[in-house]
Amino acid sequence: CRQARGMQSSVLPYEVLPAEVNMEELPRSTTVLMEDQPKPPRDHLVWSLFTTLYCNFCCLGLLAFVFSVKSRDRKVLGDYSGAQSYSSTAKWLNVTALVINILIVIIVITIVVLIITGVIRHMEPSSYNYGHN
User: Fold this and answer.
1) Where are the domains of the chain?
2) Whole-model pTM over 0.70
3) Under a CB-based contact definition with an 8 Å cutoff, are residues 64 and 44 in contact?
4) Spatial separation of the C-alpha atoms in residues 108 and 44, rounded to whole Å
5) pLDDT greater than 90 at residue 39
6) Taking the CB of residue 60, how many other CB atoms lie within 10 A of it?
7) Of 5-9, 17-21, 28-32, 34-38, the least confident
8) Between the CA of residue 101 and those of 27, 43, 62, 98, 112, what are the distances in Å?
């Protein structure tokens, strides 16, 4: 009997009240702990779509779009840490694609300006060639 009592007290998930305490005298209350839901992470889906359509250097925009969709799927399932991880990857892929494309635009504009100024210089007649034989 002693062994059964020891097993029973270790299994009980509650505290046994002393014999002198009456249940009717105890206040009746319920405590509910409310936890704030964490703010869902951004999935950067619109930015990734823009990058895919307009700045898709080496398919970085497409990869960003895939990671954004994965982030949205994780967010729907309630896995905010997984969604945050995919979201962060999509964000950095978008930033990288944007920086590379800005550099490409600057390089192309510079080359075009240099070509145009070189062509204009060659088209101008030199004043010292006229009248001197």
Assistant:
1) 49-70+88-123
2) no
3) yes
4) 28
5) no
6) 22
7) 5-9
8) 69, 22, 14, 5, 16
Whole-number Å distance between alpha carbons of 116 and 57: 26
Q: What is the pLDDT of residues 57-81, one digit of tens each?
A: 889 999 999 999 999 999 999 899 9
8 A C-beta contact, residue 60 and residue 93:
yes
DSSP letters spanning the chain:
-HHHHHHHHHH-SSPPPPTT--GGGSPP------PPPPPPPP--HHHHHHHHHH--GGGHHHHHHHHHHHHHHHHHHT-HHHHHHHHHHHHHHHHHHHHHHHHHHHHHHHHHHHHHHHHHHHHSPPGGGTT--
State the first-to-last Cα distance of the chain, in angstroms, to the nearest integer.
131
